Amino acid sequence: MKPLILLIEDDSQIRRFLRAALSAENYRLQEAVTAHDGVAQAEAHRPDLILLDLGLPDQDGIEVIRSVRQWSTAPILVLSARGQERDKIEALDLGADDYVAKPFTIGELLARIRAGLRRSSTAAPGTVFHFGNVEVDLEKRVVKSGGEEVHLTPNEYRLLQVLIKHAGKVITQRQLLAEVWGPNATEQAQYLRVYIAQLRRKLERNPARPKHLHTEPGVGYRLIAED
Fold first, then answer.
1. Domains defined along the chain, listed by start
2. Closest among 83, 11, 93, 86 to 51, alpha carbons compared
3. 121-129 CB contacts, 8 Å cutoff, 24+ apart
4. In the chain, pLDDT over 70 holds for what percent of residues?
5. Model confidence over 67-117: pLDDT tens digits?
6. What are the distances in angstroms from CA 110 to CA 77, 114, 115, 164?
């Protein structure tokens, strides 16, 4: 399946132009014309890449970057007629991956899209991830413990997937909640306690003394692959 691209752009002519160009390359496309709708679409559809105009009617596109980066690592490619260096620096500092000034050629834009998707794919975890006696096939979405398949609920699997993506690093409670349940759930710490306990019960040899799914008191959680 081709990558899903979210285009956040209020200019109807540019949307029409990009719709035709991206469809010709068989990309799947979602569109939004305001910052508010763009953030909502990003949360609902989890695109593989975001094309973002900075000059949106309801809010500056900078605010979209700030909002989306609280919970998503999807590449963000900024499209803007603003030529001032400080605008580029602010967008990139907040988490945009690339910046293309208007007017641009479709060849250049497609090359930047391919590069962004390639970097994102390279940064993704390998197909199979191991810790302890657990094996997670990320492509097939199959989890085994001691060679036996383990059933995980969708939220349990999504939580495990995020922990694997950041393996070895401390992930804050807010970041985990945002990536698994969305940005509106960042204060629901009880979700994490329940689901981490369920993962430990299913995947740890001794859930009462976990060796891999660690709690970092007052901060968040960490997945440690090594015994």
1. 4-123 (3.40.50.2300), 128-223 (1.10.10.10)
2. 11
3. 123/73, 124/165, 125/164, 125/165, 125/167, 129/164, 129/167, 129/225
4. 94
5. 998 888 889 999 987 666 677 778 887 888 888 888 889 998 999 899 888
6. 11, 6, 9, 30
Which residue type occupies 78? V
Dist CA 6 CA 179 (whole Å): 18
Altogether, the residues listed in the chain come to a count of: 227
Q: Residue with structure tokens 């990139």?
A: 92
Structure token pair of residue 57: 């009617």
Q: Decide the pairing of beta strands 76-80 and 49-53.
A: parallel
The contacts of residue 63 (CB under 8 Å, 6+ apart) are: 35
Pairwise CA distance, residues 172 & 104, whole Å: 39
- Which is it for the CA torsion 142, 28, 56, 44, positive or negative? negative
What does the pLDDT look like over 10-47, one tens digit per residue?
A: 999 999 999 999 999 999 999 999 999 999 999 989 99
Structure token pair of residue 25: 């390359």
